[in-house]
């Protein structure tokens, strides 16, 4: 890549010209001016009275023919907006935004937001790196405009947010049009024309690089063989070409002509790559190592001051059209998605295996369940959490109210969705945690208002869930629930404030250990004794919990258990399990 220091000669777009190419640029300046005047004249003759929108509908053939030759600066914003579909996006969004435009609404929301966007820090870092020394962009006003556009997009599209190189694309658009149109062009480029390029996993660009590799092999086999010989990693080279859409690589006039053609036909970027390699094939085949090869190709790109030569060479690859590209994309996408999924699985399991209480095999099984129902964002909502939860705890099926409480406790960041880390952390406690850890988890789950106390209504909800779970065939008697609440408060509410602190709640197994069943899994016979840090050698993660295993049998030498009325069941002289204060007996 050429030297981009602010002291270099700059073209009339304010972009630096590498010192090695200053003479070539000076020779072309007059040609650029004359060509611009000619194109202005041709477009002026076509665009009369009724405007471009009308002409695009009625005379699209001539519009496309002229766009291939180059779009003059005077009509470029409108032409690009129409050709890409950005104008339609803008119109549809503005219909529902009232008196204020959709873009201005986003800007206003960002200015008044109580907390910054997730992307804010990344955007801020890249502002100062965008076109250093540029007399429009690298100013306080220019950076503020760039910040507003990028932040507006990050608010609109939270899935993408912000990705490196979007700053360059946006700044280049700002040099061609107003900020609001630049926002809509950025939106259309990221969401439609280059879909997936700026995603977290960059799947779009990975697929397209695989496509480039295949068409290089079929159309320029000598170049492909040379790259193999030198071990040139095409993906590393191509990412910095594709992400910024050749900004900093091609001279400004050539770059603009490339964008004109890209907006006419999305497959043009592939033909452009072939043309760059083809034009410089002889020199590239002489290179001796990978570094020299990549440096030479970028050197040649920086001196491509004749856009017409490049466009004509690109259009000579007539078979590389959208039909072929889509076919190749589909071919490679499946394989790359599989690779990404395998990588994500290995990364997730590797990160969690150290702090988790599950084996690698169990984590893989849980991950497979998670990914089978996960949303595109990599997170699950409440209904999908219930599906996984009931698979792990099949005997809890139908206990939607209590599982919803657990969901809120799993959802550590309060996003109303759960990622894999949150899922594993929650299940680690529920299935392998110590008694105190499980009780604390239960306490926080039922403390729905996060007051730090279990209040009467929250306790009643818990008891109803346990009753329904243990005795689903019997009708819940509100009187029994109320009586049982009274018994709990009578035994545990030591300061008589009508609510239970965690220390008071920990003694709940004294009243009835079954109350903790919602949060405790079954334990095999012969497992560690009460009070151990964790259960050793569980057979598997997915357990079928039996109600009988909840109540620990007293030792033969123990005194007979006390007998009393069981308000939960309403039976006289029901044996009550002896227990330690932390509810350990049910383990």
Ordered list of secondary-structure elements with their pairings:
Blueprint: E1 9-10, E2 16-17, H1 22-46, H2 51-58, H3 60-69, H4 76-84, H5 86-95, H6 102-112, H7 120-127, H8 140-156, H9 166-174, H10 179-193, H11 203-219, H12 221-230, H13 234-242, H14 252-264, H15 268-279, H16 281-284, H17 290-302, H18 307-315, H19 322-353, H20 360-373, H21 382-392, H22 400-410, H23 420-432, H24 435-446, E3 454-455, H25 456-470, H26 478-492, E4 499-500, H27 502-505, H28 508-511, E5 563-566, E6 571-575
Antiparallel strand pairs: 1-2, 3-4, 5-6
Helix content: 55-70%
Largest sheet: 2 strands, antiparallel
Number of strands: 6
Strand fraction: under 5%
Let me know the average pLDDT. 80
* Poorly predicted runs of 5 or more residues: 1-7, 518-587
- How many helical stretches? 28
Measure the end-to-end span: 66 Å
Rg over CA atoms, rounded to whole Å, is 33 Å
Oligomer type = single chain
The coarse overall form would be: elongated
Order of adjacent strands in the largest pleated sheet: 1-2
Given helix and strand content, the structural type is mainly alpha
What does this structure look like?
The protein is mainly α and 587 residues long. Helices cover 58% and strands 3% of the residues. It contains 28 helices and 6 strands. It has helices at residues 22-46, 51-58, 60-69, 76-84, 86-95, 102-112, 120-127, 140-156, 166-174, 179-193, 203-219, 221-230, 234-242, 252-264, 268-279, 281-284, 290-302, 307-315, 322-353, 360-373, 382-392, 400-410, 420-432, 435-446, 456-470, 478-492, 502-505, 508-511; strands spanning 9-10, 16-17, 454-455, 499-500, 563-566, 571-575.
């Amino acid at each position: 890549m050429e030297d981009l220091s602010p002291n270099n000669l700059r073209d009339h777009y304010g972009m630096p010209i590498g010192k090695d190419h200053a003479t070539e640029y000076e020779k072309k300046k007059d040609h650029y001016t004359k060509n611009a005047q000619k194109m202005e004249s041709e477009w002026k003759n076509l665009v009369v009275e009724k405007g471009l929108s009308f002409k695009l509908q009625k005379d699209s053939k001539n519009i496309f023919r002229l766009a291939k030759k180059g779009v003059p600066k005077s009509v470029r914003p409108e032409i690009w907006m129409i050709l890409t579909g950005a104008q339609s996006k803008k119109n549809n969004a503005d219909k529902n935004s009232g008196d204020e435009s959709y873009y201005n609404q986003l800007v206003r929301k960002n200015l008044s937001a109580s907390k910054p966007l997730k992307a804010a820090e990344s955007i801020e870092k890249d502002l100062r790196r965008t076109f250093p020394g540029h007399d429009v962009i690298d100013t306080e006003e220019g950076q503020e405009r760039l910040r507003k556009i990028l932040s507006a997009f990050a608010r609109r599209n939270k899935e993408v947010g912000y990705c490196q190189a979007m700053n360059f694309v946006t700044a280049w658009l700002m040099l061609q049009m107003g900020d609001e149109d630049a926002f809509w062009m950025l939106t259309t480029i990221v969401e439609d024309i280059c879909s997936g390029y700026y995603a977290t996993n960059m799947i779009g660009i990975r697929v397209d690089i695989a496509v480039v590799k295949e068409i290089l092999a079929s159309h320029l086999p000598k170049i492909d063989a040379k790259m193999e010989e030198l071990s040139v990693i095409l993906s590393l080279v191509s990412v910095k070409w594709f992400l910024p859409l050749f900004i900093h690589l091609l001279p400004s006039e050539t770059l603009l002509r490339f964008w004109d053609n890209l907006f006419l036909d999305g497959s043009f970027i592939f033909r452009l790559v072939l043309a760059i390699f083809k034009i410089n094939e002889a020199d590239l085949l002489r290179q001796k190592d990978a570094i020299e090869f990549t440096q030479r190709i970028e050197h040649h790109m920086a001196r491509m001051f004749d856009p017409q030569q490049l466009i004509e060479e690109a259009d000579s690859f007539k078979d590389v059209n959208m039909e072929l590209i889509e076919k190749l994309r589909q071919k490679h996408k499946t394989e790359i998605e599989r690779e990404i999924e395998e990588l994500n699985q290995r990364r997730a399991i590797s990160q969690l295996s150290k702090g988790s209480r599950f084996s690698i095999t169990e984590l893989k099984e849980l991950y497979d369940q998670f990914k089978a129902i996960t949303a595109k964002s990599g997170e699950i909502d409440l209904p999908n959490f219930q599906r996984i939860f009931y698979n792990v705890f099949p005997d809890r099926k139908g206990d939607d109210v209590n599982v919803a409480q657990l969901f809120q406790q799993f959802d550590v960041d309060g996003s109303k969705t759960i990622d894999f880390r949150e899922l594993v952390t929650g299940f680690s406690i529920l299935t392998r945690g110590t008694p105190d850890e499980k009780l604390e988890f239960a306490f926080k789950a039922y403390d729905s208002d996060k007051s730090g106390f279990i209040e009467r209504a929250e306790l009643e909800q818990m008891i109803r869930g346990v009753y329904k779970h243990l005795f689903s065939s019997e009708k819940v008697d509100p009187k029994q629930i109320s009586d049982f609440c009274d018994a709990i408060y009578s035994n545990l509410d030591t300061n008589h404030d009508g609510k239970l602190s965690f220390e008071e709640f920990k003694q709940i197994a004294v009243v009835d250990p079954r109350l903790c069943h919602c949060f405790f899994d079954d334990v095999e016979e012969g497992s560690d004794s009460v009070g151990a840090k964790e259960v050793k050698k569980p057979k598997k993660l997915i357990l079928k919990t039996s109600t009988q295993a909840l109540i620990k049998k007293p030792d033969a030498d123990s005194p007979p258990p006390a007998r009393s009325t069981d308000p939960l069941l309403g039976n006289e002289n029901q044996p009550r399990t002896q227990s330690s204060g932390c509810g350990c007996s049910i383990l």
